[in-house]
Design a protein that fits this description.
Shape of chain B: globular
Oligomer: heterodimer
Shape of chain A: globular
Largest sheet of chain A: 5 strands, parallel
CATH topology of chain A: TIM Barrel
Radius of gyration of chain A: 20 Å
Number of helices of chain B: 6
Strand order of the largest sheet of chain A: 3-4-5-6-9
Structural class of chain A: alpha/beta
Order of helices and strands of chain B: HHHHHH
Number of strands of chain B: 0
CATH architecture of chain A: Alpha-Beta Barrel
Strand content of chain A: 5-15%
CATH class of chain A: Alpha Beta
Order of helices and strands of chain A: EEHHHHEHEHHEHEEEHEHH
Structural class of chain B: mainly alpha
Chain lengths: 349, 105
Protein backbone atom coordinates (compact mmCIF):
# COMPACT_ATOMS: atom_id res chain seq x y z
CA UNK A 1 0.00 0.00 0.00
CA UNK A 2 1.42 3.42 -0.93
CA UNK A 3 2.14 5.88 1.82
CA UNK A 4 2.16 9.67 1.86
CA UNK A 5 4.84 11.86 3.36
CA UNK A 6 3.54 14.10 6.12
CA UNK A 7 4.56 15.34 9.57
CA UNK A 8 4.02 14.70 13.23
CA UNK A 9 3.01 17.52 15.58
CA UNK A 10 6.66 17.93 16.61
CA UNK A 11 7.66 18.46 12.98
CA UNK A 12 9.31 15.06 12.42
CA UNK A 13 8.67 13.25 9.14
CA UNK A 14 6.23 10.36 8.97
CA UNK A 15 4.75 8.25 6.16
CA UNK A 16 1.04 7.47 6.51
CA UNK A 17 -1.38 5.47 4.35
CA UNK A 18 -4.59 6.97 2.96
CA UNK A 19 -6.58 5.13 5.64
CA UNK A 20 -4.32 6.42 8.42
CA UNK A 21 -4.56 10.00 7.17
CA UNK A 22 -8.35 9.85 6.83
CA UNK A 23 -8.62 8.32 10.31
CA UNK A 24 -6.42 11.06 11.84
CA UNK A 25 -8.34 13.80 10.04
CA UNK A 26 -11.62 12.37 11.33
CA UNK A 27 -10.39 11.94 14.91
CA UNK A 28 -8.86 15.45 15.05
CA UNK A 29 -12.01 17.03 13.69
CA UNK A 30 -14.24 15.07 16.09
CA UNK A 31 -12.02 15.99 19.05
CA UNK A 32 -12.54 19.70 18.30
CA UNK A 33 -16.27 19.28 17.73
CA UNK A 34 -16.64 17.35 20.97
CA UNK A 35 -14.54 19.64 23.17
CA UNK A 36 -15.90 22.88 21.74
CA UNK A 37 -19.45 21.63 21.19
CA UNK A 38 -19.18 23.05 17.69
CA UNK A 39 -20.29 21.74 14.28
CA UNK A 40 -18.26 19.04 12.55
CA UNK A 41 -16.66 19.78 9.18
CA UNK A 42 -18.66 18.69 6.13
CA UNK A 43 -17.69 15.71 3.98
CA UNK A 44 -16.53 18.12 1.25
CA UNK A 45 -14.32 20.01 3.69
CA UNK A 46 -12.82 16.77 4.99
CA UNK A 47 -12.08 15.67 1.43
CA UNK A 48 -10.41 19.04 0.72
CA UNK A 49 -8.26 18.63 3.81
CA UNK A 50 -7.24 15.16 2.62
CA UNK A 51 -6.29 16.59 -0.80
CA UNK A 52 -4.23 19.36 0.84
CA UNK A 53 -2.39 16.93 3.13
CA UNK A 54 -1.58 14.52 0.28
CA UNK A 55 -0.77 17.15 -2.37
CA UNK A 56 2.54 16.02 -3.90
CA UNK A 57 3.84 19.62 -4.04
CA UNK A 58 6.22 20.52 -1.24
CA UNK A 59 4.77 24.02 -0.75
CA UNK A 60 1.06 24.54 -1.39
CA UNK A 61 -0.82 27.82 -1.57
CA UNK A 62 -4.28 29.34 -1.56
CA UNK A 63 -6.22 29.89 -4.74
CA UNK A 64 -5.80 33.30 -6.37
CA UNK A 65 -8.17 35.79 -4.78
CA UNK A 66 -8.17 34.13 -1.34
CA UNK A 67 -5.16 36.06 0.00
CA UNK A 68 -5.31 37.44 3.56
CA UNK A 69 -3.30 39.87 5.68
CA UNK A 70 -0.92 39.04 8.50
CA UNK A 71 -0.40 40.51 11.96
CA UNK A 72 2.45 39.56 14.30
CA UNK A 73 3.08 38.97 17.95
CA UNK A 74 6.60 39.56 19.28
CA UNK A 75 7.12 41.49 16.02
CA UNK A 76 10.45 43.23 16.52
CA UNK A 77 11.78 40.44 18.73
CA UNK A 78 12.16 38.05 15.82
CA UNK A 79 15.13 39.60 13.99
CA UNK A 80 17.24 41.45 16.60
CA UNK A 81 16.52 39.20 19.60
CA UNK A 82 15.70 35.68 18.44
CA UNK A 83 17.80 35.69 15.25
CA UNK A 84 20.54 37.82 16.81
CA UNK A 85 20.74 40.28 13.94
CA UNK A 86 22.52 43.50 14.94
CA UNK A 87 19.68 45.78 13.88
CA UNK A 88 17.47 48.16 15.84
CA UNK A 89 13.70 47.92 15.97
CA UNK A 90 13.01 50.59 13.36
CA UNK A 91 15.29 48.77 10.93
CA UNK A 92 13.42 45.59 11.78
CA UNK A 93 10.08 47.21 10.93
CA UNK A 94 11.46 48.60 7.66
CA UNK A 95 12.97 45.20 6.78
CA UNK A 96 9.56 43.63 7.26
CA UNK A 97 7.95 46.42 5.22
CA UNK A 98 10.38 46.64 2.31
CA UNK A 99 12.09 43.24 2.14
CA UNK A 100 9.76 40.63 3.64
CA UNK A 101 6.70 42.65 2.56
CA UNK A 102 4.71 42.06 5.73
CA UNK A 103 1.30 43.72 5.83
CA UNK A 104 1.76 44.98 9.41
CA UNK A 105 4.41 44.89 12.12
CA UNK A 106 4.58 45.20 15.87
CA UNK A 107 7.09 46.92 18.14
CA UNK A 108 7.71 45.15 21.43
CA UNK A 109 10.28 45.10 24.18
CA UNK A 110 12.46 42.07 24.95
CA UNK A 111 10.76 41.94 28.36
CA UNK A 112 7.39 41.49 26.67
CA UNK A 113 4.92 42.19 29.51
CA UNK A 114 3.01 45.43 30.19
CA UNK A 115 4.04 45.50 33.86
CA UNK A 116 7.73 45.56 32.93
CA UNK A 117 7.37 48.59 30.64
CA UNK A 118 6.46 51.26 33.16
CA UNK A 119 10.04 52.46 33.71
CA UNK A 120 10.88 52.65 29.99
CA UNK A 121 7.54 53.59 28.46
CA UNK A 122 8.69 57.02 27.27
CA UNK A 123 11.68 55.51 25.46
CA UNK A 124 9.30 52.99 23.91
CA UNK A 125 7.07 55.86 22.82
CA UNK A 126 10.02 57.68 21.22
CA UNK A 127 10.90 54.52 19.26
CA UNK A 128 7.31 54.34 18.05
CA UNK A 129 7.38 58.01 16.97
CA UNK A 130 10.63 57.60 14.97
CA UNK A 131 9.37 54.42 13.37
CA UNK A 132 6.04 55.95 12.42
CA UNK A 133 7.83 58.78 10.58
CA UNK A 134 9.65 56.27 8.40
CA UNK A 135 7.30 53.36 7.85
CA UNK A 136 4.26 52.91 5.65
CA UNK A 137 2.72 49.70 7.02
CA UNK A 138 0.55 49.79 10.18
CA UNK A 139 2.59 49.23 13.34
CA UNK A 140 1.15 47.87 16.57
CA UNK A 141 2.70 48.11 20.00
CA UNK A 142 2.41 44.81 21.82
CA UNK A 143 3.07 43.00 25.08
CA UNK A 144 1.47 40.43 27.38
CA UNK A 145 -0.92 41.06 30.30
CA UNK A 146 1.06 38.41 32.26
CA UNK A 147 -0.95 38.50 35.48
CA UNK A 148 1.50 36.12 37.12
CA UNK A 149 4.10 38.91 37.33
CA UNK A 150 1.98 40.63 39.99
CA UNK A 151 2.60 37.78 42.44
CA UNK A 152 5.34 37.59 45.07
CA UNK A 153 8.32 37.72 44.78
CA UNK A 154 8.07 39.63 41.44
CA UNK A 155 5.04 41.61 42.54
CA UNK A 156 3.05 42.62 45.62
CA UNK A 157 0.23 40.04 45.53
CA UNK A 158 0.15 36.62 47.17
CA UNK A 159 0.87 33.82 44.70
CA UNK A 160 -2.32 31.93 43.86
CA UNK A 161 -0.29 29.06 42.43
CA UNK A 162 1.07 28.52 45.93
CA UNK A 163 -2.25 29.18 47.68
CA UNK A 164 -4.32 26.78 45.57
CA UNK A 165 -2.36 23.59 46.48
CA UNK A 166 -2.85 24.58 50.15
CA UNK A 167 -6.61 24.64 49.51
CA UNK A 168 -6.70 28.37 50.28
CA UNK A 169 -9.27 28.94 47.55
CA UNK A 170 -10.71 32.19 48.90
CA UNK A 171 -7.27 33.72 49.39
CA UNK A 172 -6.19 32.62 45.89
CA UNK A 173 -9.26 34.25 44.37
CA UNK A 174 -8.77 37.46 46.35
CA UNK A 175 -5.13 37.65 45.21
CA UNK A 176 -6.19 37.33 41.57
CA UNK A 177 -8.84 39.99 41.95
CA UNK A 178 -6.24 42.34 43.42
CA UNK A 179 -3.79 41.58 40.58
CA UNK A 180 -6.46 42.19 37.94
CA UNK A 181 -6.96 45.80 39.05
CA UNK A 182 -3.19 46.43 38.99
CA UNK A 183 -2.82 44.87 35.54
CA UNK A 184 -5.71 46.90 34.12
CA UNK A 185 -4.10 50.11 35.38
CA UNK A 186 -0.71 49.19 33.87
CA UNK A 187 -2.13 48.12 30.51
CA UNK A 188 -4.20 51.27 30.15
CA UNK A 189 -1.22 53.44 31.15
CA UNK A 190 1.23 51.83 28.69
CA UNK A 191 -1.24 51.49 25.81
CA UNK A 192 -2.36 55.13 26.18
CA UNK A 193 1.19 56.48 25.90
CA UNK A 194 2.05 54.26 22.94
CA UNK A 195 -1.17 55.14 21.14
CA UNK A 196 -0.55 58.85 21.71
CA UNK A 197 2.94 58.27 20.24
CA UNK A 198 1.30 57.18 16.99
CA UNK A 199 0.86 53.40 17.25
CA UNK A 200 -1.70 52.19 14.74
CA UNK A 201 -2.93 49.67 17.23
CA UNK A 202 -2.29 47.91 20.52
CA UNK A 203 -1.72 44.17 20.69
CA UNK A 204 -2.58 42.24 23.84
CA UNK A 205 -0.69 39.03 23.28
CA UNK A 206 -0.79 35.64 25.01
CA UNK A 207 -3.98 36.65 26.80
CA UNK A 208 -5.18 34.16 29.38
CA UNK A 209 -1.71 32.74 30.05
CA UNK A 210 -2.41 33.15 33.77
CA UNK A 211 -6.00 32.01 33.44
CA UNK A 212 -9.38 33.69 33.57
CA UNK A 213 -8.06 36.64 35.63
CA UNK A 214 -5.55 37.42 32.90
CA UNK A 215 -8.37 37.42 30.33
CA UNK A 216 -10.68 39.57 32.48
CA UNK A 217 -7.93 42.17 33.08
CA UNK A 218 -7.46 42.48 29.32
CA UNK A 219 -11.18 42.86 28.64
CA UNK A 220 -11.44 45.58 31.28
CA UNK A 221 -8.41 47.39 29.82
CA UNK A 222 -9.94 47.24 26.33
CA UNK A 223 -13.18 48.78 27.61
CA UNK A 224 -11.33 51.72 29.16
CA UNK A 225 -9.05 52.24 26.16
CA UNK A 226 -11.92 52.21 23.66
CA UNK A 227 -13.79 54.80 25.71
CA UNK A 228 -10.65 56.99 25.79
CA UNK A 229 -9.67 56.39 22.15
CA UNK A 230 -12.62 55.17 20.04
CA UNK A 231 -10.43 54.87 16.90
CA UNK A 232 -7.81 52.65 18.56
CA UNK A 233 -7.33 49.27 16.87
CA UNK A 234 -6.93 46.53 19.46
CA UNK A 235 -5.82 42.99 18.68
CA UNK A 236 -6.27 40.27 21.27
CA UNK A 237 -4.13 37.17 20.75
CA UNK A 238 -4.91 34.32 23.09
CA UNK A 239 -2.50 32.07 25.00
CA UNK A 240 -4.40 28.83 24.43
CA UNK A 241 -7.58 27.35 23.05
CA UNK A 242 -9.21 27.02 26.48
CA UNK A 243 -9.37 29.66 29.24
CA UNK A 244 -8.01 28.11 32.42
CA UNK A 245 -10.15 28.67 35.51
CA UNK A 246 -7.42 29.71 37.93
CA UNK A 247 -10.13 31.76 39.68
CA UNK A 248 -13.12 29.95 38.29
CA UNK A 249 -15.86 32.45 39.07
CA UNK A 250 -14.84 35.49 37.04
CA UNK A 251 -17.38 36.79 34.56
CA UNK A 252 -17.44 39.43 31.86
CA UNK A 253 -20.88 40.94 31.30
CA UNK A 254 -22.57 37.81 32.58
CA UNK A 255 -20.33 35.31 30.77
CA UNK A 256 -18.16 33.03 32.90
CA UNK A 257 -14.67 33.20 31.41
CA UNK A 258 -13.24 29.90 32.64
CA UNK A 259 -13.64 27.17 30.07
CA UNK A 260 -14.36 29.35 27.04
CA UNK A 261 -13.19 28.05 23.64
CA UNK A 262 -12.23 30.32 20.70
CA UNK A 263 -15.76 30.72 19.27
CA UNK A 264 -16.89 31.89 22.74
CA UNK A 265 -13.76 33.90 23.57
CA UNK A 266 -14.23 36.01 20.46
CA UNK A 267 -17.72 37.08 21.53
CA UNK A 268 -16.51 38.62 24.81
CA UNK A 269 -13.56 40.26 23.05
CA UNK A 270 -15.98 41.73 20.52
CA UNK A 271 -18.26 42.96 23.32
CA UNK A 272 -15.35 44.65 25.12
CA UNK A 273 -14.41 46.53 21.93
CA UNK A 274 -11.62 44.40 20.42
CA UNK A 275 -10.90 44.94 16.72
CA UNK A 276 -9.06 41.75 15.72
CA UNK A 277 -9.20 38.39 17.52
CA UNK A 278 -6.19 36.09 17.47
CA UNK A 279 -7.63 32.62 17.99
CA UNK A 280 -5.31 29.95 19.32
CA UNK A 281 -5.70 26.22 18.84
CA UNK A 282 -3.07 24.14 20.60
CA UNK A 283 -0.93 21.65 18.67
CA UNK A 284 -0.52 18.17 20.15
CA UNK A 285 3.08 17.24 19.33
CA UNK A 286 2.48 13.50 19.67
CA UNK A 287 -0.34 13.49 17.09
CA UNK A 288 0.08 13.82 13.32
CA UNK A 289 -0.26 16.95 11.16
CA UNK A 290 -3.57 15.63 9.70
CA UNK A 291 -4.98 15.20 13.24
CA UNK A 292 -3.81 18.65 14.39
CA UNK A 293 -4.82 20.42 11.20
CA UNK A 294 -8.35 19.00 11.10
CA UNK A 295 -8.77 19.97 14.73
CA UNK A 296 -7.45 23.51 14.21
CA UNK A 297 -9.59 24.08 11.12
CA UNK A 298 -12.75 22.90 12.93
CA UNK A 299 -12.15 25.39 15.77
CA UNK A 300 -11.14 28.16 13.35
CA UNK A 301 -14.26 27.79 11.21
CA UNK A 302 -16.57 27.87 14.24
CA UNK A 303 -14.76 30.91 15.63
CA UNK A 304 -14.84 32.85 12.39
CA UNK A 305 -18.52 32.08 11.81
CA UNK A 306 -19.39 33.25 15.34
CA UNK A 307 -17.43 36.48 14.99
CA UNK A 308 -18.33 39.88 13.60
CA UNK A 309 -14.72 41.09 13.85
CA UNK A 310 -11.79 39.75 11.82
CA UNK A 311 -10.20 36.57 13.15
CA UNK A 312 -6.44 36.16 12.69
CA UNK A 313 -5.72 32.57 13.68
CA UNK A 314 -2.35 32.24 15.42
CA UNK A 315 -0.19 30.08 13.16
CA UNK A 316 3.25 30.11 14.72
CA UNK A 317 5.18 27.28 16.27
CA UNK A 318 2.94 24.96 18.25
CA UNK A 319 -0.41 26.59 17.49
CA UNK A 320 -3.06 26.48 14.78
CA UNK A 321 -1.85 23.08 13.55
CA UNK A 322 1.75 24.25 13.02
CA UNK A 323 4.22 21.70 14.42
CA UNK A 324 5.79 22.48 17.78
CA UNK A 325 9.29 23.32 16.58
CA UNK A 326 11.20 26.56 16.02
CA UNK A 327 11.84 25.63 12.39
CA UNK A 328 8.48 24.41 11.18
CA UNK A 329 8.89 22.58 7.85
CA UNK A 330 7.62 24.60 4.90
CA UNK A 331 5.46 21.70 3.68
CA UNK A 332 3.57 21.71 6.98
CA UNK A 333 3.38 25.50 7.37
CA UNK A 334 2.00 26.07 3.88
CA UNK A 335 -0.64 23.34 4.34
CA UNK A 336 -1.75 24.94 7.60
CA UNK A 337 -1.82 28.39 5.97
CA UNK A 338 -4.02 27.24 3.10
CA UNK A 339 -6.36 25.13 5.23
CA UNK A 340 -6.99 27.75 7.93
CA UNK A 341 -7.97 30.30 5.30
CA UNK A 342 -9.85 28.26 2.71
CA UNK A 343 -11.65 25.87 5.09
CA UNK A 344 -11.18 27.53 8.48
CA UNK A 345 -12.41 30.88 7.07
CA UNK A 346 -9.69 32.90 8.82
CA UNK A 347 -9.58 36.63 7.98
CA UNK A 348 -5.84 36.68 8.51
CA UNK A 349 -3.02 34.92 10.30
CA UNK B 1 7.63 31.07 9.23
CA UNK B 2 6.32 34.51 8.22
CA UNK B 3 7.88 34.12 4.78
CA UNK B 4 6.14 30.80 4.15
CA UNK B 5 2.76 32.16 5.25
CA UNK B 6 3.34 35.17 3.00
CA UNK B 7 4.19 32.93 0.03
CA UNK B 8 1.33 30.52 0.70
CA UNK B 9 -1.46 32.95 1.50
CA UNK B 10 -0.31 36.53 2.04
CA UNK B 11 -1.36 39.66 0.17
CA UNK B 12 2.19 41.00 -0.06
CA UNK B 13 2.31 44.19 2.01
CA UNK B 14 3.38 47.29 0.08
CA UNK B 15 4.26 45.20 -3.02
CA UNK B 16 0.49 45.01 -3.45
CA UNK B 17 -2.33 46.31 -1.24
CA UNK B 18 -1.72 44.20 1.88
CA UNK B 19 -0.96 47.18 4.11
CA UNK B 20 -4.09 48.97 2.85
CA UNK B 21 -6.40 46.04 3.55
CA UNK B 22 -4.80 45.59 6.98
CA UNK B 23 -5.41 49.28 7.74
CA UNK B 24 -9.07 48.97 6.85
CA UNK B 25 -9.44 45.81 8.96
CA UNK B 26 -7.86 47.71 11.85
CA UNK B 27 -9.80 50.94 11.51
CA UNK B 28 -13.20 49.43 10.73
CA UNK B 29 -12.95 45.91 12.28
CA UNK B 30 -13.97 44.52 8.89
CA UNK B 31 -13.73 40.86 7.91
CA UNK B 32 -11.31 40.15 5.07
CA UNK B 33 -13.85 40.10 2.23
CA UNK B 34 -15.44 43.40 3.25
CA UNK B 35 -12.05 45.03 3.84
CA UNK B 36 -10.79 43.99 0.40
CA UNK B 37 -14.00 45.19 -1.25
CA UNK B 38 -13.69 48.57 0.53
CA UNK B 39 -10.08 49.04 -0.61
CA UNK B 40 -10.81 47.87 -4.16
CA UNK B 41 -13.63 50.40 -4.48
CA UNK B 42 -11.47 53.23 -3.14
CA UNK B 43 -8.68 52.33 -5.58
CA UNK B 44 -11.04 51.70 -8.49
CA UNK B 45 -9.77 48.18 -9.16
CA UNK B 46 -11.14 44.65 -8.75
CA UNK B 47 -10.60 42.63 -5.57
CA UNK B 48 -8.35 40.21 -7.48
CA UNK B 49 -6.16 43.14 -8.60
CA UNK B 50 -5.32 43.99 -4.98
CA UNK B 51 -2.85 41.09 -4.80
CA UNK B 52 -1.34 41.66 -8.26
CA UNK B 53 2.12 43.14 -7.67
CA UNK B 54 2.48 44.28 -11.29
CA UNK B 55 -0.73 46.27 -11.32
CA UNK B 56 -0.37 47.55 -7.78
CA UNK B 57 3.17 48.84 -8.40
CA UNK B 58 1.86 51.07 -11.15
CA UNK B 59 -1.13 52.18 -9.10
CA UNK B 60 0.85 52.81 -5.90
CA UNK B 61 3.32 54.95 -7.82
CA UNK B 62 0.52 56.84 -9.50
CA UNK B 63 -1.25 57.48 -6.17
CA UNK B 64 2.11 58.17 -4.47
CA UNK B 65 1.33 55.90 -1.52
CA UNK B 66 4.73 54.22 -1.23
CA UNK B 67 6.23 51.09 -2.75
CA UNK B 68 9.13 48.74 -2.01
CA UNK B 69 11.44 50.64 -4.33
CA UNK B 70 12.47 54.04 -3.01
CA UNK B 71 12.57 56.54 -5.87
CA UNK B 72 13.59 60.16 -5.73
CA UNK B 73 10.66 62.57 -5.29
CA UNK B 74 8.30 59.70 -4.42
CA UNK B 75 6.55 59.83 -1.05
CA UNK B 76 8.04 57.75 1.72
CA UNK B 77 7.09 56.98 5.32
CA UNK B 78 4.74 59.53 6.85
CA UNK B 79 4.35 61.32 3.49
CA UNK B 80 2.96 58.16 1.91
CA UNK B 81 0.62 57.69 4.86
CA UNK B 82 -0.85 61.17 4.35
CA UNK B 83 -1.79 60.03 0.85
CA UNK B 84 -3.07 56.64 2.06
CA UNK B 85 -5.31 58.38 4.58
CA UNK B 86 -6.86 60.47 1.79
CA UNK B 87 -7.20 57.61 -0.71
CA UNK B 88 -8.83 55.23 1.80
CA UNK B 89 -10.75 57.96 3.62
CA UNK B 90 -9.57 56.71 7.02
CA UNK B 91 -7.80 58.37 9.93
CA UNK B 92 -4.20 57.27 10.49
CA UNK B 93 -3.03 57.91 14.03
CA UNK B 94 0.55 58.94 13.17
CA UNK B 95 -0.70 61.26 10.42
CA UNK B 96 -3.05 62.99 12.85
CA UNK B 97 -0.15 63.30 15.33
CA UNK B 98 2.06 64.81 12.63
CA UNK B 99 -0.64 67.35 11.72
CA UNK B 100 -0.95 68.38 15.39
CA UNK B 101 2.83 68.73 15.78
CA UNK B 102 3.25 71.00 12.78
CA UNK B 103 0.10 72.95 13.74
CA UNK B 104 -1.87 71.85 10.69
CA UNK B 105 -4.79 71.20 13.05
Amino acid sequence: MSKFFTRMGDGSAVFLSEAEIRRDLEEGMLDAADRGKIPELTDDEMERLYQIITDPQKTVSIERGNEVVMTFDAGTLKLPVRAGLPVDRMTTVLTHERVLCSDTMEIGNADYSYKQLKNIVHEEAASMEFTQLNCIIPVFYGAMPNLGLYTKPDGPVDNWSELLPMAKIGEARAAQEEAIEMAVKDMVYIASILYEAGADGINFDTVGASGDGDFLATLKAIEILKSKYPDMAIEVGMAGEFVLGMHGQLEYDGTRLAGLYPHEQVKVVEKAGGTIFGAVINTNSSKSLPWNLARAVTFSKACSEASNIPVHVNAGMGVGGIPLTNTSPTDATSRVSKSLIEIGKADGL
Amino acid sequence: MAVIHEVASGMGGIRTAGDLVARVQMSKAMKIKEAKKYVAEKLGVSVIDLSDSYLMKELREELDIGHVQVRDRASYGIEAKFNISKVLDIKINSVENFKRKVKMI
